[in-house]
Amino acid sequence: MSASLYTRRRVKNVVAMACSILATAIGLFFLVWILWETLSQGISAIKPSLFTKITAYREEGGLANAMVGSLILNVLGILIATPIGVAAGTWLAEYSRRSRLGPTIRFLNDILLSAPSIVLGLFVYTIVVLPSKYLSNGEVTFSGVAGGVALALIALPVIVRTTDEMLRLVPGTLREAALSLGVPQWKLTLQILVRSARSGIVTGVLLALARISGETAPLLFTAFGNNFMTFNPLDKMPSLPQVIYEYTKDPSPDINTLAWAGAFVLTMFVLALSLIARFAFSRSKVSND
Amino acid sequence: MHATASNAGTGADRAHEASRNAKDSRNDILFGGVLKACALLVLAALVGAAGSTLWLGSDAFHTFGWGFLTSAAWDPSNDQYGALVPIMGTVGTALIALVVAVPISFGIALFLTEIAPQWLRGPVASAIELLAGIPSIIYGMWGLFVFAPFVAAHIKPWLMNHFSADPPDGQVSWLVQHVPFVAKFFASEYPFFGAGVLTAGLVLAVMIIPFISSVMREVFQTVPTRLKESAYALGSSTWEVVWDIVVPYTRTAVIGGVFLGLGRALGETMAVAFVLGNTFKFSWSMLETGSSIASTIANQFGEAQGLQRSALMALAFLLFVVTFIVLLIARLMLRRMATKEGR
Fold it and tell me: For the whole model, what pTM was predicted?
């Protein structure tokens, strides 16, 4: 009787362990499958004209304007989000100790972090694209600026969160030492705290960059996209994910191949960024200890 | 030097010091105010997103009233809009994703915290987290060009042979003959067409696995070693330790992680936009094509005018409110765990 109970428990254990290993194998299998398809279909589609020609030539063209557009949009997004995000994160970590608002905003920031990006895109459409008709001759214009603002909204919570976490890792003795010397708090924050948490904050910005460079949904109705090389941020601006989206929907197989090439470039860029961010983070951890 | 100056006590130095103190405190207040304003922008973004979609969607809400939620009509040519099909698609795909992703994520977290040898844990955890780094548009492409044909060739015909009333191989299975309603969920007019609610749900499942499993792994690691070792000392097997000690200890946070994944799945656009089929016919079947709120917006907003645009905004509002509530629950549960940990 007790032997059979013992066997039953052992069998149950072995089955559970096997299921767990199987689940991990399934997860890794899908990772390899997706990366493999992107690599194999993408590498064979890579050609020099991809980086020199624009999407206006369709099958004979490349993705040069989309890459330049993506670069501009990402830089815009980061330039808008970084100062605001670092400031907000600093407030959460340093100034909100005695207020109830602090925990609430920290909590809401976590929600913004996984809010549906397409709704954020529509929000930016409402506050940037729609009002543009009052600035121009009554026509609603999509623009790179709107795209940048939309991406900034996605990047913001990432930067806020890492800044907040990194500043809270800074030892309290540093603050006390500075305050006892009579340093005003703004100087303490800017010159001591933010500086000692700098590498962590840079990590946050890199992670935010990795996150926004793969975003498609918020750009559809803000930057909108066009087929030409665009440097003016007040104009419609193409981006790599948006062109991949259009080219994937396209019935022509040649265009789909271009989409795979774009997907390959995009995936490599995003994964490299997150690896660099991780590397920077591991270094910052060492320097903080 | 500063100290000697104030000790000397000349009036000019005092005045200088006082003015500097005043300047510092003014700057402090200003600086704090600017930081606070930036923090309030986070609040403004959430309120703004809800407010703007509600404002622009109010036309549709006024025109259709509560019927907007229950009507299956989505007909731009007659200007009739109901949210039922996109809502069903969103909820259906997210539920399928959860049903598939939760057990797999649990298995992965279990493997990474209890089973795997120490040297294997780091690399496998990083690899799974790499899945979260892949842009969603890549999931969409892979879904359309690779996974949907796979579903059409292998998964869907098998499911239809076993569970539908109109199987491709012509033999209606025992289950379908004896259990009512089963066939309803597996009906499809095109047995060899890959796009559909199930395919989209499976793509979403792959997408949310890294989110759920990393939350589970993190909270599993917070279980005190003393508890686990006590159970082992009493003769428990690894599975019994996990099921009777680890899971009850971390239950709220695990549910929080699941809700976090649900929030992601509900709001995802690009991964499902290609593989759902974007049709607006009401159906209970998970093998039929459908549409989700996010994919409908992505596909139609560009050309939409007037009432259709308002209806899309109304859909966006619904999506935002629902994901907000789901994520709120998720974060509350995760926070309860963090408080218990004393963090």
Answer: 0.90
